[in-house]
Amino acid sequence: MKTPPGQCPQWWQHAHNKSIHRSHDQSQDCPQCVDHMRNGCPYIVPKKKSSWF
User: Fold this and answer.
1) What is the largest CA-CA distance in the chain?
2) What is the C-alpha to C-alpha distance for residues 30 and 14, in angstroms, rounded to an integer?
3) By the number of CB atoms within 10 A of the CB, which of 8, 47, 49, 50 ranks highest?
4) Is 38 left (phi over 0), alpha (psi -120 to 50) or beta?
5) pLDDT tens digits for 31-49?
């Protein structure tokens, strides 16, 4: 599944690929998601520029 423009690839993957979180203990938060919540997204897929103006 390709990350849509304007979205963070990690957030997108973690939201739509449930197998990522299956490997974690369900009583604990995903360390990668917690890092993203605290430090923000290092990369956002760029949006295409509008061609009508």
Assistant:
1) 51
2) 10
3) 8
4) alpha
5) 888 898 899 888 888 887 7
pLDDT at 2 over 80: yes
User: Could you identify the residue written with the tokens 């979180």?
Assistant: 21
Secondary structure (3-state) at 16: helix
CA distance 11 to 13: 6
- The Cα 25–Cα 36 span in angstroms is 18
Tokens of 34: 């917690």
The count of other CB atoms within 10 Å of the CB of residue 39 is 8
